[in-house]
Design a protein that fits this description.
Order of helices and strands: HEEEEEE
Shape: rod-shaped
Number of helices: 1
Number of strands: 6
Radius of gyration: 26 Å
Structural class: alpha+beta
Largest sheet: 6 strands, mixed
Strand content: 15-25%
Distance between the termini: 77 Å
Length: 136
């Protein structure tokens, strides 16, 4: 009797590998989505912290110059290096864009995330304070 040499994989083995890959993909993709969202949230927190620092430095400079603490109209103007996608005033329209919304009734920093969600932080010029993240 001749011995048969087996080359390659059987159909059952290939199906088992495909099922395992499918299970791995089903577990990994949702985790990746939350990772992207949390990284955007961390980046937003860093930008707001940089804005708070810039506003406080401006206020301290005003104390030295004028003996009176005051805060800037637009906090982005006081940053050494604004975010790369800062586009000025108004409402953001592009992914990742930062703007300063300056209306009579409200001043706020706005950011449009890459998933098209829009967030704002209310800026109070009298105190130099930023409110918490609010989804629009």
């Amino acid at each position: 009797m001749r011995s048969m040499k087996q080359n390659g994989f059987t159909l059952v083995e290939l199906i088992i590998v495909m099922v395992l890959l499918g299970i791995l993909a089903a577990v990994a993709i949702p985790k990746m989505g939350t990772t992207v969202a949390s990284s955007e949230e961390a980046a937003e927190t860093a930008v707001i912290a940089a804005l708070q620092t810039a506003v406080e430095l401006y206020a301290m400079d005003q104390v030295v110059l004028n003996s009176e603490k005051s805060y800037p109209d637009n906090p982005f103007d006081e940053m050494d290096k604004p975010p790369s996608k800062y586009s000025g005033t108004g409402s953001p329209s592009d992914d990742g864009e930062w703007t300063f919304f300056n209306e009579t009734e409200e001043k706020s920093v706005r950011h449009k995330r890459n998933d098209n969600t829009l967030y704002k932080w209310v800026y109070t010029k009298d105190t130099g304070a930023f409110g918490g993240r609010i989804a629009l």
